[in-house]
Design a protein that fits this description.
200 residues, alpha+beta, TolA/TonB C-terminal domain, two-stranded antiparallel ribbon, 9 strands, elongated
């Protein structure tokens, strides 16, 4: 027995005990109108973390990407279609949605669609590491900064630190330090001249 039927039954008993005229059909109609039908809904169960593209972070490109996700009754993805958004960010949102896990609640035999919003925002709270490209002096290895992802129902927020521009300050300092040489004219002078080391 559901809650609405129980409520109607209690009201009928109280009405008969107190001698109040009350039509059971009115109560039943009231119970039916209070009962809401369950609408089919797509729920994001497990988000595959989106990656903020380094080029977009470096160019300070931010914005919202809206995707229309169509889900089969068994929860598998039917299609993911971009609606709008900055071109450099659309692919990152598509990759995330295609690898995420969805559930279709209250679905019959038809696919159900829902719009999801991916908001990309570069974080200016932390300045890029001046040695972000250098694991050790002279190295050109790039350490990609991590993105922070948060989700609230159909809205996904992606923020990431500003990306590093290589060569970084530490690589340039190492190159200048190792650019010393002594020419034939000044063999006995330590800091006689400098030559430049090209860094790619």
């Amino acid at each position: 027995m559901d809650v609405e039927s129980l409520r109607v039954g209690v009201a009928l008993v109280l009405a008969s005990v107190m001698g109040l005229p009350m039509c059971s059909r009115d109560l039943m109609a009231q119970g039916i109108t209070n009962t809401e039908e369950v609408k089919p809904q797509v729920v994001l169960n497990k988000l595959f973390p989106p990656v903020y593209p380094p080029l977009a972070r470096q160019a300070l490109i931010a914005g919202d990407v809206h995707l229309k996700v169509s889900v089969h009754p068994d929860g598998s993805i039917g299609s993911v279609t971009p609606i709008d958004g900055p071109p450099l960010l659309v692919q990152a949102a598509l990759d995330s949605a295609k690898q995420s896990q969805f559930e279709c609640k209250g679905c019959g035999e038809l696919d159900v669609s829902r719009t999801f919003t991916y908001s990309f925002k570069p974080s200016r709270d932390v300045d890029p590491d001046p040695c972000c490209c250098s694991e050790k002096p002279g190295s050109t290895a790039y350490k990609a900064p991590t993105s922070q992802v948060s989700q609230s129902e159909d809205h996904i927020l992606v923020s990431g630190p500003l990306t590093c521009v290589c060569p970084d300050a530490c690589t340039l300092a190492w190159a200048q330090e190792h650019s010393r040489y002594r020419s034939a004219e000044c063999l006995y002078l330590w800091k006689c001249g400098r030559r430049k080391i090209a860094i790619q």
